[in-house]
Structures are given as C-alpha cells and as structure tokens.
Design goal:
Two copies of one chain form a homodimer. Chain A has 438 residues and is of the alpha+beta class. The first copy, chain A, has two domains: 123 residues, Fumarylacetoacetase, N-terminal domain (SH3 type barrels); 211 residues, Fumarylacetoacetase-like, C-terminal domain (Fumarylacetoacetate hydrolase, domain 2). Chain A is 18% helix and 25% strand. In chain A, strands 6, 7, 8, 13, 14, 16, 17 and 22 form an eight-stranded mixed sheet that branches. Chain A has a five-stranded antiparallel sheet with strand order 4-3-2-1-5. Chain A is globular, with a radius of gyration of 21 Å. Chain A starts with 33 loop residues before the first strand and ends with a strand. At the A-B interface, β7, β10 and α7 of A face β7, β10 and α7 of B.
C-alpha cells in the first residue's frame, strides 16, 4: 500500500459549505472524517455524520433524500447504521469510494443539492457520540522518548528496558470505560502508597494525569490464528482519533508490578469524536523513526519498505488546560505541550502487525492507541508525569496556580492537525474532559 | 448476601431425566447450569440451554411449548435470547426464580411434560458455544501459591512483590480470542530471547503452557464512576466457569516488562460451556484464605464479614493431558494436577469490588478470571511452568513421553466439581483444547 494522494486532496477544492473553506478549519472538504451524533438534547437514534467546516453532513438524511443511491448497497447500509463498525468492516477501497462520492457531493463547483438544509446539521446543535462499539482496546508504548522519560522516574538505574527496541510494547486496556469527548471524568479512588508509608491507603488519586495519544480504529479484522503481515497492515486501519488515556499515577506506581497498569487507567479513556481516515492523511506521511546505527533494525515481521519514505504521519499535537479559576476568568486555554506524532519509535503498521503476529484476532471497531506521544524536544512531553518530573517541577498556570497533577475542575483539551505547504489543513478537532471530585 | 441453600439443593431431589440421577454426573437437578448451543452440524440460531444429566433442556423450546409462561416477561425474553447476556443482566433474584422454576419442571415427583422429547436434546448432539458476548475480560492473579512459585522462577531474589498482599493484582485480557471448549489452539509465534541470545528471534513458542483458572461472568453491571461495595459484590456475579488461559512462556518472559503480558496470552483463552450459578454453589462455600498474624488484613473496601465463614468456594479442580501418542493408543487422560479453589488469597467478591473500586464499569457478560489456581500441596500446581519448574523437571506421560511444555497434538482437559457429604455433586463439565502446529 502506498500513500498516494488523489483529487480529494486537491488544495484548490472548495465546498459549498462556506465554513469548510476557512483556512483554520480542521474539517475542510479534503478531510471528511466520520463520526456518530444525534441532535443535542434529543433521544433520537444515533446516526453517522461527516464533519465539514462547522457542520455535520448527515449520512442517514443523505440516504433518505437519494444522495447515496449510486453507491454499492453495502456502503449504503454502512452509512445508515448507528455506529461506524459496519463502515469500518467494508475495507479501505470501499471507504475510498465513499470518500470520493462525498467529496463530489460537497464540492463548490458542483450543484448544491436542493436538500442542503436537510442534510446538514450545525455541529453546535449535535451531541457527538462514540464513533464505534469497541470490542477490545489496546494501548501501546510507542514513543521512545516517553518510555525513556517515564522509565527514568520509575527505574532511574534502568530507564529503557532491554526489550523496548525490539518489541512494540503494549497492554490490553479497558474497553467499557472509553467515553466520548466532553464526558466529565470522576477522580478515581484507589490504593496508593508512598515509599515512606508502612502500608497503602485507599483514597482519591492525588496524582491524576492525562496522556496525549493517537489511536486508530481497526477496519477489516482478521481471523483468529491468521496474522496480518506488515505490508498489508495499513489496509486494516480505518482511521485515527485523539485519545486521552487518563492515569492515576499513584495508583499505577503501587499496582503495576508484575502485570502492568490496571485500575490506574480503567476508570476512563476519552476519545475525540471524528475519525480521520488514513486516506485523508496521505499527504502528511513522513519517514518512520530513524534508528541509529547502534540500534537494532526491526525484525523482518515488523519491517516495511515504506518505513523510510512514509511509515510515519506528521500530526501536530497539543495539550491545553483550563482550570476552574481560568474558566471563571474566561481565560484562554493554556498550552502545556506541543509536538509531532512523526517521531514515534513504532509505526501504526508495526503496532497492528505485532498485535496480530501471534494470531490474535482484531475486529472492526477495535481501538489501538499509540501510548503517550512525547518528542525529543523540550515542551513536547505528552503527560504531566513527564512535564513536572513526577510533580517535582510544577507548571505555573496564567492565574498563578501551580499544577503538579490535575486538580478538580481542570479541563484537558487535546488537539491535533496536519499542515503542509501545498495542502489543506486536515485536523482532528478536540478531545476534552473535565475532572470531577471523587 | 448470605449463602443459603433452599429446596433446589435438596440432595434427595431426583429428575425424570434419568441420567441426571447418576451419582457421578456433573449436572444433577441441583446444578442447572446455563449454556448456549445449537444442534451439531447445523447453522441454526444459537439458543440457551440448561445442562441436566447428559441432556440439554432447550429453553427456547420450553418457551414455545408454554412451559415458561408463568415467568415474568423479562425472564421469558432472557431465556429465548441467543446468548446469556440478557439473563445475566436481570439480577440474582430473577435468576433464582428461574432456577426454582426449572427445578420444579425437572423433578421426578412432578408430572413429566408431554413435550419432554421436544424440549431435551442429547448433549452429544449439540455444539456448545460461548455462553455470552464478553465486552471485557480481566484476569486476576489471586493464588498466592501461584504468584510465589512463578515469582521464584522470574525473580528468584524477590518472588512475591510488596503489593501482593494488599492489591488483588490483575490485568486486562483479550476478549476477542476467548473460544469455546473444544476449539483447537494454534501454537503462537512471537518474539523470544534466551538470556544467552544476543537478540530475540521471531518463531513459534517453544514454551506453550496452559493455566487452570476459574472465571466468573458479571451479572448486573455498574455505571461508570459507581463502585460496587464489597458487601454487594456477589449480587453482581452471575455464575462460574473453567478457564484455560493458554500462555507462551518464552514470549511472556521477553515481552512482559514493564506493561504486563500481552501477546503471550492473547492468542486464545478457552472457557468451559456451562455457567454454574453462584446459587448452585451455595452448599460448597468455605472460609476465605486465612491470613497469618504477620500478614496484613484486607483494606476495608476489600473486607467482608462473610469471608471467615464463606468467602471461598471449595471447587475441586484437575488438569489432564492426552498426547497424540496417548490418543492413538486409546489411553485415558493423564492427570497433571489436582487441587482446590478454596485456598485463593483473594475471593471473587474481593476481585469484583477491587475491579470497580476506581469507578470502572463492569457490564453483563464480562468475564473475570481468577488467575492460575495453585495450592500449597505438591501436585496442585495449575500450570506446567510451575509443575516442571520452567521445564527443568519434565513430566513423564504414561507413554514414556516427556513434557516440559505442551507439544503439538496435546489435548489439555480442565475439570471442576464440588462434592460434599449430604449434598449432590455439582460439576462444571470440561474445558478442552488441543494444540495445533504453528
């Protein structure tokens, strides 16, 4: 699979949806990410939409007014389902067909459909729901900068374990507690124990953190016992979203040996509502992590000839915070970090190939996240644990408040977008969550 | 919740299904476990059944012939579904009502229904399927003997980590690769590295193992953010089954730091088909693990007054093996271990309360397994890793074959049953799986 661009990426394309032509929108006609929504405050069935500027193109309505009738029946069924699972299962070629169809439908040089007012709903009038029903959620650990920074804090003498440069390390996450952007996050309780404490106590986490991650949804799955080879891996990726893997660091430090993180993570994981297809991201591919001469090359089952040219994706990611006090004072969100997804040690294809290499079956709608995205540069660390050095160097907010970890009332906002000379900006929108008291 | 017995446990009860009255059956009228099946070789929809002797009582058929009409509508709907999820969600009181109804229906001193031949299907003519759709699968580590034995092998200087006696250690497992008893298990490939190897290789696991576990299905779930208190925990347990958590020990040793087991486990987990309700197990409750004076008592959120009398369940568990050569020679399965579930360090209620203590939402149909069940006694170790001391002391099979770990063609059979003077035997049936080459 090569990462080719086609007419849908043409930067000169404009839409008759005016807000999609604004240079700062995350959702120009070149993006066309999929999501699931219902009208705000209604109890109507969830339906599939496509973000276009500040509007949502309602695919169920498009179907009803006959705008999808040229598409294969399977695609029509997928577009009118109540989540994206069926669309995820049809395969990347079919999704391409749909993408081109929607691009044609929304282009300013095509006749605006008479039904335009019916098939659009303002994003501000919609409740954005989880895009898919996720059977299994897996979280990787694919940033070597994150692994090294965190390793230093937990194991100063042994920051990066010997397997890291060979194994795309991951653990199974909790699927039930994946929540949509905007859902409030209740501070978890749990066992925690400071080194000087004789015994643990059970109380609210005092070291609540976010983790900036990028996730992808599995498109077509594989049968149990049938690994997906690395050179076919991207065909099984439907699209990407932002993931906030909330973490109770004190709970994590006490519980994680020897079987890994459990309750420190399973209380909530927030994802952004719009799933940006791999195809929309084609212009923003970049070389995979460049390993030094001294570092091992990936084993053959993790090696792809595309890595050197376009194994990575250059997504600019940032994390902002709004404290209760800042919100009260109507202050702008304060940026905690900014960095690129382009320098992950393992690519998405490597994650997927590794995951299925033992025969494990992946299913349409499964969510696979990258692990915290941290870069080499100062200011690009994707969680407070790293930024504040486990709380020892608190961040000062514009109000003068200090943050070692998250306080009740803090809202964390993840953002991501791709920008490149000669192409329209393709963004992910936001992934938000506010901390409630325990 | 106390563990009371009622008329359904009466050892004098007999069924008009003759095979249910045999003293060695796992499925007397006192058991009535639930499962999901279809006629062998058919493509008919899956339906719910109850094991009775060597027969299955077909609940859909019972409904059709009017034998369930006295039950609340919700229960009737649950009995005619294609898996147990709805029945799991109705709550333990409703399941009790159903259990009493089925007990009445099957008693030898009641009129045998005219439809008896219609509502029964021989177990040998049925394909037994997964009992539920499992959203999340969690695996605990609740046997201190297992944790200590394994700890010695992986960390000789530090076998039991400091958190063990405080935290019911667990990790998220893979839900997609849970398979029903009888499904063949393909030997996984993966990265492995012997200490003397300069780098890992990717090849078939050479240290394939089973793990004898007991699992339970979550009945009524909880809302995200609403922990289940320990004294209500058992109300959320629908019933139990046997679990074989297949493990590639070489893959595990290399991958598990720092985030826990992943591909070493996710290639397959086999469960037994019949779900034995907690109510059926009431006569076999036993005291929870007795902690020594020197050991910490469980923290308050994990303490239940019932522990001393009946926190545990005395299930006798055994593991047998049949090699290809033994099968060829028509030899009986060879027993590898035998021990009781009664001496787990953490109770099922503690596992469930801990799991939800951070607010994590459990859903009907979620599977929570105990971790390998090993006892203190010689011969009660629940996996080959322990029995053969990581392969250094192979087991000799009756054919003279040696087993450090599983060979292709080996079939592993888990069995479990409760037996006690004055009560009918209540069994789990078998959990089987045969290893196929990679």
């Amino acid at each position: 699979m090569t990462h080719t661009t086609d007419a849908t990426h043409d930067p000169n394309l404009r839409s008759w949806v005016e807000s999609a032509n604004h240079k700062d929108t995350d959702f120009p006609i070149q993006n066309l990410p999929f999501g699931v929504f219902r009208a705000l405050g209604s109890a109507e069935p969830a339906r599939i939409g496509v973000a276009i500027g500040d509007q949502i193109l309602d695919l169920s309505k498009c179907y009803q007014v006959g705008l999808l009738q040229e598409l294969p029946e399977q695609l029509q069924a997928a577009c009118t389902a109540s989540n994206l699972n069926l669309l995820m299962s049809v395969g990347s070629e079919s999704v391409s067909i749909l993408r081109r169809h929607l691009s044609e439908l929304l282009r300013s040089d095509r006749q605006q459909p008479a039904s335009a007012t019916e098939i659009l709903i303002p994003m501000s009038s919609a409740e954005l729901l989880l895009p898919a029903s996720t059977g299994d959620y897996t979280d990787f650990y694919a940033s070597i900068f994150h692994a090294t920074n965190v390793g230093k804090l937990f194991r100063p003498d042994n920051p990066l374990l010997p397997n890291y440069k060979y194994v795309p390390i991951a653990y199974h996450g909790r699927a039930s507690s994946i929540v949509s952007s905007g859902t409030s996050i209740k501070r978890p309780q749990g066992q925690r124990k400071k080194p000087e404490d004789p015994a643990p106590s059970f109380s609210s986490s005092a070291m609540l953190d976010y983790e900036l991650e990028v996730g992808f949804f599995v498109g077509v799955g594989n049968e149990l016992g049938q690994p997906i080879p690395i050179d076919r891996a991207e065909e099984h990726i439907f699209g990407l979203c932002l993931v906030n893997d909330w973490s109770g660091r004190d709970i994590q430090a006490w519980e994680y040996q020897p079987l890994g993180p459990f309750l420190s993570k399973s209380f909530a994981t927030t994802i952004s509502p719009w799933v940006v297809t791999l195809e929309a991201l084609a212009p923003f591919r970049c070389p995979a992590f460049v390993r030094s001469e001294a570092d091992p090359q990936p084993l053959p089952y993790l090696s792809s000839p595309l890595d050197a040219s376009s194994g990575g994706i250059d997504i600019m990611l940032e994390v902002c915070i709004v404290s209760a006090q800042m919100r009260e004072a109507k202050m702008h969100p304060f940026r905690l970090s900014r960095g690129s997804f382009g320098q992950m040690y393992w690519t998405l294809a490597q994650m997927l190939a590794h995951h299925s290499s033992n025969g494990c079956n992946l299913r349409s709608g499964d969510l696979i996240a990258s692990g915290t995205v941290s870069g080499a540069e100062e200011g690009s660390q994707g969680c407070l644990l790293e930024i504040t050095q486990r709380g020892s160097k608190p961040v000062t907010l514009p109000t003068g408040e200090l943050r070692s970890f998250l306080a009740d009332g803090d809202e964390v906002i993840l953002r991501g977008y791709c920008q490149k000379e000669g192409y329209a900006r393709v963004g992910f929108g936001e992934c938000r969550g506010t901390i409630l008291p325990a």
